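Notes on consecutive records. When two proteins share a document, each keeps its own sequence and its own token line. Never mix them. Below: protein one.
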Amino acid sequence: MDKQSQLDDLKLTIENSGITPELKAGATQLVFGAGNPDADIVFIGEAPGKNEDLKGEPFVGAAGKFLNEMLAAADLKREDVYITNIVKYRPPNNRDPLPEEKRAFWPYLMQQLETIAPKVVITLGRHSGECFIPDIHISQDHGHARRVKYHDYEFLVIPLYHPAAALYNGGMRQTLIDDFIAAAAVARKNLSS
């Protein structure tokens, strides 16, 4: 079975699992992920927002437009990478995902990653970063790569600020772009070694 078929099966498993029933009840649909199932780089956000919930695809709202800008600045294309979130149903009023919601989705996220088998995971925001690096302080650790091992699967994690940070604080915009370009360079170096 090819990777896309495995991912499609995993999506169905989540939809049928009864996971986070209150989130599911308030969401339009599951937002599983999008992009290249053979990607070497996977971006992981926190949870879908309103636009993502309506379209069924991660990062399609204002933060997604800025993510596209950053991808272009780093000479990457959406179709070359894979983009997902930890929590795959929209939390009410776009609130932060709760620890128990992140825990509930964690095994599915890891199954998603093991299927895609990226060499580099770039986390977008504190919530996704702390799932991989529990002691993270995003203001200090953004852009600093760390090796992470899950079972027999080892990969590089690069925590970055969430693209929405630049929407709320224009002064963050250049920091995010610079971090993104540097993270892409680290990712490429890791892919070629």
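Protein two starts on the next line and is unrelated to protein one.
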Amino acid sequence: MISNRLKSLAGLVVNTDKVIDVGSDHCLLSIYLVKNNIVDSLISSDINQNALSGGLKNIRKYKVEDKINIVLGDGISMIDENIDTAVIAGMGINTIIKILSHKNIKHLNKLIIQSTGDYFLLRNFIVTKRYYISHEAVIYDKGKYYINIVFTRGKKRYSIKELRFGPILMHANKEYFKYLLKKQDAIIENIPSYKIFTRLKFKKERRFLRKLAK
């Protein structure tokens, strides 16, 4: 019913979480969560009316209308203290940051995020909102890498390298860093030789990636 990357998100939800699925698209993750009794009910939101129309059809198809409250909007602006967990997937880092800039983030104790893009920007932004990183994992699905990150309410200090590469991932996934190392090699090859300082910067990062990939 759902892809491996969405199923990996479902595995990060526990039955005590009061969930909003932000950017739920066709509500497949939301349906999976209630059909498998991971949560009793949840809110499913999206800013795209067509996506929600498709989601509503799926909700009716699987007969879970009484368990999923479907709403049009960005989700976070609609919640109160009755919701404490947000699942956000399938969108870019800048969009996620915009959504989480809303004041209602104060109600959320747990953020489950899956995206591609500038993870340093994402981690740095969210930890400044008084969350710490409690889980990270790399998911490979249909030829692409995704990173799942769970941010939990609390405070912890991180180094620049930890925010860049992930405080948990740095010690847990060599294959992913081998992939990043190959990408870094391609970048360096395309930097003109006269851009000495740029090349030095990327080569320095490459040396660190080599350590993580060993």
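For the record: Residues 30 and 73 are 16 Å apart (CA to CA).
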